[in-house]
Amino acid sequence: PTPLDEKGPTEVAHAAAAFNEMQKRIAEYLKERMQILAAISHDLQTPITRMKLRAEFMEDSVDRDKLWSDLGEMEHLVREGVAYARSVHGATEASHRINLDAFLDSLVFDYQDMNKQVSLTGKSAVVLDTRPHALRRVLVNLVDNALKFAGSAQLEVGSTASGELSIKVLDNGPGIAEDELQQVMQPFYRVESSRNRGTGGTGLGLAIAQQLAVAIGGSLTLSNRPSGGLCAQIKINL
To answer: What mean pLDDT is predicted for residues 107-117?
Structure first.
């Protein structure tokens, strides 16, 4: 956040300075917390790798398969923990100008090459100054979420009434309870219906998408579609 101007009458200047100092302390606290999360997640990778190597030498059995599956889930959680810690500060990727329509076409073609039901409608005719890897991660997380719960995803690009760039990821899945639309973007939060091995995840995918959307100067909102399913909308000022 931008610091307050500390000019003006003495009382106002003192209040602004105190607010800026509090804001700085909060930012440092959050940064330290994310560094701890990243360090723990990173350090867990080594023992998980050792356990996977040992599991390879076990005789084939149901227990071995279960252990291998559990280790895979742990490894995924660790990777997502590191990704979330990095996303909080939007990190260091340099901005580049990209042809947004070509960028989205490429993303959709990658999914279609894997026989995934992902489509794109609309054209933006926009050359966007952004962090392409961060934007791609946002979209991939949203598309993967749609594929997980609905089996298909539709990207829709356009603009809002106020002139912002709009990229929507739409699905025809079960949607999310209205009172959980904000909560699902908090780290490690999962809706009750997703807490199974078939559809469950780490609870970090949407949190990472939300953090990175902010980092590239945009916003992410979720809403239920009148026809059923979820709409995840990214808005970016042009």
So the answer is: 95
